[in-house]
Amino acid sequence: MTERILAGKTAVVTGSNSGIGLGVAHALARAGADLVINSFTDTAEDHALAEKLAAEHGVTARYVQADMSKAGDCRALIEKAGRCDILVNNAGIQHVAPIPDFPVEKWDQIIAINLSSAFHTTAAALPLMRAAGWGRVVNIASAHGLTASPFKSAYVAAKHGVVGLSKVTALETATDPITCNAICPGYVLTPIIEAQIPDQMKTHGMSREDVIAKVMLQRQPSGDFATVDQIGGTAVFLCSPAADQITGTTISVDGGWTAL
Q: Are residues 71 and 197 both part of a single domain?
């Protein structure tokens, strides 16, 4: 989809200085949307990334620092954006441990960043969308928003919550020209995932190919990673006129994981 169908719209993408969030930002900008990108850092590189996105895609782009574990920062992000036609709630972290050993502070942090932040940004964005007469909320959930794995209690709980929040948001905006949906990726090849492969090779004594097939993608029937461009393309579709009547649902980009 190369048509600039989102020209004149402003998209706020949380957790977007790398990985899936950055891929979604690129896709929305290619479709013509102006950008507000975000993370918890505030470096020259962060602001330079916004400038690069603007130059590459011929849109405006700004970087706004916000700690998505803090309710006030989440709401201030939308206020600083000034306009929010498209909200992509992507910010997230992970921690793996059995429930009895799961650190309380990690539980609180994951729930705050992966779930509560989406509530706070949505609460701040919906009045702006209603005033503008159009809006799209795209929540980046996970295959773990539809199924579960051991040792990921906080992440699974948060992502299930994101799916539920998406449904409630959709119902509350059903009579407005606003939609809300969740994208549920499986394993996506991001720099973070790529960096894990050498360590997994050492841990399991396997080749790169075997680690990917037998460890990382064991539950992904396609045997291949999704890409950030595919997630971005799905987000653009959900913001397109073709998706005007798609709301309150999930779209899995998981190579068949949740079909098992």
A: no
